[in-house]
Amino acid sequence: MLLPQLAIVIPCYNEEQVLPLTYPLFADKLKQLQDKGLVSKSSYLLFVDDGSSDQTWQLICDYAVADEQVRALRQSRNRGHQNTVLAGLLESIDVCDITISIDADGQDDLDAMDEMVSAYLDGADVVYGVRNDRSTDSFFKRFTAESFYRVLNAMGVQAVFNHADYRLISARVLKEFANFKEVNLFLRGMVPLVGFKSTSVYYSRAPRLAGESHYPFSKMLSLAIDGITSLSVKPLRFVTGLGLAVSFLAFLLLAWIITVFFLGKTIPGWASMTAIVAFMSGIQLLSLGIIGEYVGKIYLESKGRPRYIISERVGMLPPVSSEGA
Ligand code: UDP
Ligand code: MG
Question: Which residues form the Glycosyltransferase 2-like domain (predicted)?
Fold first, then answer.
């Protein structure tokens, strides 16, 4: 049987502290998968540097020079985690049978890869790595992450609960995925839209081996808003519903005012007027903000700018343009 060729795609942004710890683990894992006869000898690690400003790229280049199973790409500037993973995946389309994307920091259990590849060999085209134990994450991180998945699901985005960006994707799913042209990426919500047979493997999440998380609350919030607004129009329906509800309340208020007027009473009004004006202004600004998020998305998407730009390649096949990727 011909063994599948695997690319392990590892996005790295300012990870000089963590890479010396995790690179040997990735290299060992690849060797184990090969020794077990799960993947071909031509499989490799693909580090994608996201325009790091520390020694990350130098480290990756050293690995690539010393180890022929390491390939490396460098983004021309920092573009964020999602675009970096996408760069690694799309650059592997014509080379590999399967890709596994995983963070550089050792938080995701490498041993889950054996099960992922086995699931692929059993016929799955997408295998999601799902964290079934997040006890090493802080309470705040768990709470925000859980609320995030709940809101996503309520908005109709089909993201797998507790799955981040640790997943196996087959080349044929990647080829279809390449036709999803959006610039605003939320991979964990987009991949399920491609369809094909998928399954999950479970693992417990470890703490970062070194360095700091690049996802503070503000970045998580913006990923959440991006995820929702690029995959669902439910917030716009919410605005419509809100408008209807407020109009109905306004109608009741009007009926009450008219009734009181015909009863010959006067209503002292300053406080209630102020409250109503403030309430309405709040609702209008909220609605404008929600609509504005979508207008902003249209503006950014309409430019159709490239989703990643590779400035350097080490140990790679001849350059492929990101155009049409
Ligand atoms: N990352 C990236 N570009 C960025 C931020 C992060 O490529 O602008 C990478 C980072 O090096 C890591 C992965 O994305 O491999 C996940 O980031 P991190 O571990 O900081 O996030 P967390 O696990 O805390 O959500
Ligand atoms: Mg991490």
Answer: 8-176
